[in-house]
């Protein structure tokens, strides 16, 4: 007796191993390191170096978290990172919204060339920009200030955010803006009152990307700020290691503290970010 399998069921069964492989890769690459850092932050030094290796802490302790705040001014690092990331995200969104709207709505003569230039700029390695940016900041007397990080972070996030928003703005009917302008609204007013609210998922997604990029950046933060009171979190965490000692439980505790704000941000805006990435992928 023969069994008939529908084409849809066959493709579903064929794609199942690929989905399982993708889920396993995500688990190994993303979830496992985060859990390992969390478990390490709850262990003492003796348990961490014991053999055989123990995956779960036998006697969980929060002493490492208290030591992370006492050994270094971790609260100052967090504040500096938050302010720099917040300011650069706001500036990035403001500029990228205007740039993306111009590319999506205005009949620019060299629109294709501009988009190609934006894509090309986004591929530049950060290390190649370090010396020119440092010279610019030194000439402008901006070293050891938040602005020295806010401006470069904005420039680095602009290409990706602009390209993402262009696809969203192109999906909004022009009639909505025309109707608003007929009622007396300016083009800029129509942009921020009509287009931006309708593209809220894309704007939130671009904002999250800009915030995370600024929150995690290390090279520029290390090079542009030598003032201890202005150090950001990535730079501050590397101060926990000594010349001959690496207190991994304390470092892990500081890392967990640094991950929490971004995790909270993702959880709060999860639905908007997911819908933004999905919609952007479909439109692109």
TrEMBL record:
Transmembrane stretches, start-end: 20-39, 76-101, 113-134, 146-169, 190-215, 248-269
GO cellular component terms, semicolon-separated: plasma membrane
PROSITE patterns cross-referenced by the UniProt entry: ABC_TM1 (PS50928)
Domain called ABC transmembrane type-1: residue spans: 78-269
Topological type in the membrane: Multi-pass membrane protein
Extent of the signal sequence: none
Gene Ontology biological process terms, A to Z: transmembrane transport
Protein family (similarity comment): Belongs to the binding-protein-dependent transport system permease family.
Identification of the protein by name: Sugar ABC transporter permease
Record organism: Rhizobium rhizogenes (Agrobacterium rhizogenes)
């Amino acid at each position: 007796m023969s069994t008939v399998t529908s084409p849809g069921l066959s493709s579903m069964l064929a794609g199942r191993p690929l989905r399982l492989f993708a889920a396993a890769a995500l688990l190994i690459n993303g979830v496992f390191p985060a859990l390992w850092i969390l478990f390490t932050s709850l262990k003492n030094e003796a348990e961490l170096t014991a053999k055989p290796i123990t995956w779960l802490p036998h006697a969980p302790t929060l002493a490492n978290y208290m030591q992370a705040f006492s050994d270094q001014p971790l609260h100052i690092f967090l504040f500096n990172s938050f302010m720099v990331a917040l300011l650069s995200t706001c500036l990035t969104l403001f500029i990228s919204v205007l740039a993306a709207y111009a590319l999506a709505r205005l009949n620019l003569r060299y629109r294709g060339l501009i988009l190609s230039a934006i894509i090309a700029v986004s591929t530049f390695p950060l290390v190649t920009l370090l010396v020119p940016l440092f010279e610019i900041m030194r000439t402008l007397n901006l070293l050891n200030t938040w602005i020295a990080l806010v401006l470069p972070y904005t420039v680095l996030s602009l290409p990706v955010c602009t390209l993402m928003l262009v696809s969203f703005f192109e999906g909004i009917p022009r009639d909505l803006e025309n109707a608003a302008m007929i009622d007396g609204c300016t083009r800029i007013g129509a942009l921020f009152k009509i287009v931006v609210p309708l593209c809220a998922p894309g704007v939130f997604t671009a904002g999250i990307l800009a915030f995370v990029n600024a929150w995690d950046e290390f090279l520029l933060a290390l090079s542009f700020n030598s003032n201890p009171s202005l150090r950001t979190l990535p730079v501050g965490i590397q101060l926990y290691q000594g010349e001959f000692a690496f207190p991994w439980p304390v470092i892990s505790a500081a890392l967990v503290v640094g991950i929490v704000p971004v995790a909270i941000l993702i959880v709060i805006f999860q639905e908007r970010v997911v819908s933004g990435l999905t919609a952007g992928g479909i439109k692109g």
